[in-house]
Amino acid sequence: MSNSKNKWLIPLAFTNIYVIWGITFLAISFGLKGFPPFILSGLRFLVAGILMIGYLLSKGERANSMINWKKNAITGILILTGGTGLVAWGEQYVTASEAAISIATGPFWFIAIDKKNWKYYFSDKFIPLGLVIGFAGLVLFLKGSVNSNAHAVTDGNLRITAFIVLGLSSIAWVLGSLYSKKNPASQSTFMNIAQQLIVAGSASFIIAFFRKEWTDFSVAAVPLSAWFGVLFLIFFGSIIAYLSYIWLLSVKPAALVSTHTYINPIVTVIAGWIVANQSINGGQLYGLFIILLGVLLTNVTKYFRLSKRSKVKIRRVKRFLNRTGRGYQPI
């Protein structure tokens, strides 16, 4: 892909993961007006996966490696069924904004679980500081959420359980990401995504069966707003944004791409306020800013780390200044 194309594709891809994934939390809340959580997740993943694999097969790509299917099955179940499916369950009892903010703690789980790199993580003074600040922000946010009157009709214990489940969804996402990184499948990224979506959708439908979600479900009773939510999740959330995310990881540093974690909650809060009249109280707002500050600190060194070429240039400038500055040293 040429540099001229990259110039407009990169900002477009960042816009996709910033805005679309932020709105996705709101789309889930609309989908839940007509679909139980795991039927909703199964539908969005399976349809998106079938559309993608159908296109790839028509172009001559093969999907007959059982090893690749196995690897993508594990990744898909952890990241999509667990990571995103549990979000849909949690949004039955919390707002889209609350769910998005809870997911913003994902980078903390990544550092906690990735034991192999603990020595690197904790050699950076900003990372432990960011973890402490982020945890304090999470406590403040959860306190503001539990005390919120926005869900007075929802049992307080259910809301607490929902926040715990949202935390588990972040852990599942991180476990899937680490597994995928250590056990990459040997085929195109697009085929990997298609297989992950198909397996995740099938697993979600199976969970829906055991939870008896199909028992009282009626397609005829699904309102139009829920169908719009599902369509958005299929085409924008599971295809466009996910593909943008995977492509960006191949052309930009992962630390830079991960900034969507900080922007998504802000987009969700704004979209929820405009579209669904969802509100956020002072305690939750303070918690949000503190969480974002903590996550930023855990990654600040990555953002400002200089490349080898930049370091060489800086050393050359220093040597030049030292040579030209002789005789002007302070006494």
Automatic annotation (TrEMBL):
- The answer, when asked if Transferase is one of the entry's keywords, is no
Transmembrane region(s): 12-32, 38-57, 69-89, 95-114, 126-146, 158-178, 190-210, 226-249, 261-280, 286-306
Statement: the UniProt record of this protein carries the keyword Transmembrane helix: yes
Please give the name of this protein: Permease of the drug/metabolite transporter (DMT) superfamily
Family membership noted in the UniProt record: Belongs to the EamA transporter family.
**One GO CC annotation, please?**
membrane
Q: How does it sit in the membrane?
A: Multi-pass membrane protein
The protein's superkingdom reads Bacteria
- Where, per UniProt, does this protein localize? Membrane
Alphabetized InterPro entries for the sequence: AA-Vitamin_Transporters, EamA_dom, EmrE-like
Q: Which UniProt keywords are given for this protein, alphabetically ordered?
A: Membrane, Transmembrane, Transmembrane helix
Q: Which organism is it from?
A: Chryseobacterium culicis
EamA domain residues are: 19-141, 164-299
